[in-house]
Specification:
- This protein folds into 3 domains: about 1-105, no CATH class; about 125-250, Jelly Rolls, CATH 2.60.120.1440; about 260-330, Phage tail protein beta-alpha-beta fold (3-Layer(bab) Sandwich), CATH 3.55.50.
- The protein is about 30% helix and about 30% strand.
- It has helices at about 10-20, 25-35, 40-50, 60-75, 85-90, 90-100, 255-260, 270-280, 305-315, and strands spanning about 55-60, 110-115, 120-125, 130-135, 140-145, 150-155, 160-165, 170, 180-185, 190, 195-200, 210-215, 215-220, 225-230, 235-240, 245, 260, 265, 280-285, 295, 300, 315-320, 325-330.
- It has an 8-stranded mixed β-sheet with strand order 1-4-5-8-11-12-15-16. An 8-stranded mixed β-sheet has the order 2-3-6-7-9-10-13-14. A 3-stranded mixed β-sheet has the order 19-23-22, covered by helices on one side.
- It is flat, with a radius of gyration of 24 Å.
């Protein structure tokens, strides 16, 4: 970190590319970098490249390790830790390049800091990453759906249990009546002491939606004027205009986690909607009458190619694929 000024932004990008295995890098530049590398960056980079996206992330432990190394390095030289200053400048640009090179499908864990007392931890999932587990220091577990982001501070659980969610996630919250667990869901907030439930913040109509599996959940608008107490089996919807709850009638509500879809005569328009949410499949029927056909087959953790072939076989259809979209027509 001390020697960041010895390389230009362009050189940092070349170094990141070489360390990630995308290019060999210029020998002169890499030799100069290795001569200045007193912190075994190359060794740590290799560890980063071997990250397994199926493993749980304990973000609190990760931050503590990084923070302690920064503090030790700063104390050894009798000055303030340089980590936060560095993360606000060159490091953020290099880290962005590195994360892209490591792999788009991998979950991204990064730390944003405006000062030494305010450290924000963010875990984000990509387009093809589903059911990604994040373990919190209090024993709670959060499972992120694709294209979702969880944010909280590094001192989570010390005085309070607050997180923010953009997207969709399933929460399994450790019981602690003295420290309620609160979720900032954008247009609404969720408050519990210990339960399991699903939260969606990116519905097409923008309303926040909560489904409770166990325990009780309080769903409130941002003014605190409207509140819904949700019990197991209920779905609550909330924004500045909507405040309603009803019993869940969709057996596949949590299928994005299980990847198992069960049907007993639903029409294909419902099946295709579920396949979009669970398997990220975009299916378009060129003949609208196809959508009125009924479906009774269970889809259990099956590949997209197998699913589309089963549909075509059952209903005597054929398909073409345009990018990521399947088009169905009658034979």
């Amino acid at each position: 970190m001390i020697n960041t000024g010895k390389f230009t932004d362009r050189e940092w990008e070349e170094i990141a590319s070489a360390l990630s295995g995308e290019t060999e890098g210029r020998p002169e530049l890499m030799n100069r970098f290795m001569a200045e590398d007193n912190n075994e960056v190359e060794k740590k980079w290799k560890v980063l490249r071997t990250m397994n996206e199926d493993k749980d992330i304990n973000v609190d432990d990760a931050w503590n390790k990084v923070s302690s190394r920064i503090d030790i390095a700063g104390a050894a030289e009798g000055r303030e830790p340089a980590g936060f200053i560095f993360m606000r400048s060159t490091f953020m640009r290099v880290a962005a390049v590195a994360l892209i090179l490591v792999g788009i499908s991998a979950a991204v864990l990064y730390i944003v800091s405006s000062d030494s007392l305010s450290k924000k931890i963010v875990v984000a999932t990509g387009d093809n990453q589903v059911n990604y587990r994040v373990s919190l220091p209090d024993g709670s577990s959060i499972f992120l759906n694709r294209n979702s982001k969880l944010t909280y501070h590094s001192n989570f659980g010390r005085h309070s249990r607050n997180v923010a969610l953009a997207g969709e996630a399933f929460f399994d919250i450790a019981h602690n009546p003295s420290k309620p667990f609160t979720i900032d869901a954008g247009k609404a907030s969720v408050k519990v002491v210990g339960t399991s439930f699903n939260v969606i913040t990116n519905n097409p109509d923008s309303a926040v939606e909560v489904f409770v599996r166990t325990g009780k959940v309080m769903l409130s608008d941002n003014t605190g004027d409207k509140n819904l107490l949700l019990e197991p089996g209920y779905v609550g919807t909330m924004d500045s205009k909507i405040s309603e709850k009803k019993l869940n009638g969709n057996p596949n509500y949590l299928a994005w986690q299980t990847r198992s879809l069960v049907y007993n005569g639903q029409t294909l328009d419902i099946v295709f909607r579920d396949l979009k949410r669970v398997y990220n499949m975009e299916i378009i029927a060129d003949d609208p009458a196809i959508l009125n056909e009924t479906w009774v087959t269970t889809i259990d953790n099956t590949s997209q190619e197998t699913i589309i072939r089963i549909i075509c076989t059952i209903y005597n259809l054929r398909y073409t694929k345009d990018g990521d979209i399947y088009h169905l027509v009658r034979k």
